[in-house]
Amino acid sequence: MKKILLYEYLSGNGDADRYADRYADRCVSAELRMQGSAMRDAVARDLARSGHVALTCVAGHDEAHDATDTALAIDWCPAPFAIPPSRFLAAEARRHDAVWVIAPETDGVLSTLCEAVEPSRWIGCDAATLHIASSKRRTARYLALAGIATPRAWSVEAPLEVACNASAWVVKPDDGAGAVDTLLFHDYRMAEYVFLRRVAAREHVTLEEWISGDALSLSLLCTRGHAELLGINRQHIGIYDGQVAYEGLTANAVSLSSEKASAFRSLAARVARALPGLAGFVGIDLVWHPQRGPVVIEINPRVTCAYPALADLLDTNIAASVVAEHFGLGDDFKRRRYAA
């Protein structure tokens, strides 16, 4: 029986004040917190059903949970007060066999939490890979070296040439999530002006071509340079007065037996080889361009919003599979959803 702590950063009040201040004018912190709770609860259900985990989940300050959930054998502990999440995790890690953290890459949050936990107890991507995937520009450079298509982006050394790039451009946080602060421009000069102003204001932003096509995401189970394709999801993206908005997804919208699935499996394998530190549940956001095929927008090195929907659709117990790979348990660990 493995003792695992499951901590979701936003629902666990990891940095609610900073998120509320940063995004107050868009009222997204509450939405992100609900998404965080949904991801945490889905992973918790799968782990509890595996029958091989003594699970402790961290509950937010305003959440009501019994100390022990007898229906699913989950112990709940309150989120920490007045101490940083990193200190909380460092202490809790010593009391558990492993720690599974769900947190945004924004502002280096996920990387900081990873550094607080001994590598052997950390479930998920390693620190070096989190450093790469936490930056859209770093991710694009690594993938480009592996011959994987990514959007062309502005840099001081190579400003974009309007004539040979896209008909639209996007300015967005280099470490952002959920399309927050993401703006679309059809006038390149205006896009570059906004980009340079935000850079001058010390924002970490990127300016890149807008890729037209089907917005999709891949859900993967990764381990040591290999990737298993779990689902191909359709992302719903809206644009309102130039503001790009993430409006949810449809899980398994593209069949794993379709022609495109073969291309996506090949892409997933190439990404996993390019970033062998990817581990556990990983998401790839991409656009299927009519001429270029799949263009990778970003890699999410953690549980994503697709997990709850996929968990309801797949027969495989995803979380149990992640834990089995982490501990090297193989067939000794039951991976069917209703094993318990």
TrEMBL record:
<dbReference type="InterPro" id="IPR040803">
    <property type="entry name" value="MfnD_preATP-grasp"/>
</dbReference>
<dbReference type="InterPro" id="IPR003806">
    <property type="entry name" value="ATP-grasp_PylC-type"/>
</dbReference>
<feature type="domain" description="ATP-grasp">
    <location>
        <begin position="140"/>
        <end position="327"/>
    </location>
</feature>
<dbReference type="InterPro" id="IPR011761">
    <property type="entry name" value="ATP-grasp"/>
</dbReference>
<keyword id="KW-0547">Nucleotide-binding</keyword>
<dbReference type="Pfam" id="PF02655">
    <property type="entry name" value="ATP-grasp_3"/>
</dbReference>
<keyword id="KW-0067">ATP-binding</keyword>
<dbReference type="Pfam" id="PF18301">
    <property type="entry name" value="preATP-grasp_3"/>
</dbReference>
<dbReference type="GO" id="GO:0005524">
    <property type="term" value="F:ATP binding"/>
</dbReference>
<dbReference type="InterPro" id="IPR024710">
    <property type="entry name" value="MfnD"/>
</dbReference>
<dbReference type="GO" id="GO:0046872">
    <property type="term" value="F:metal ion binding"/>
</dbReference>
<protein>
    <submittedName>
        <fullName>ATP-grasp domain-containing protein</fullName>
    </submittedName>
</protein>
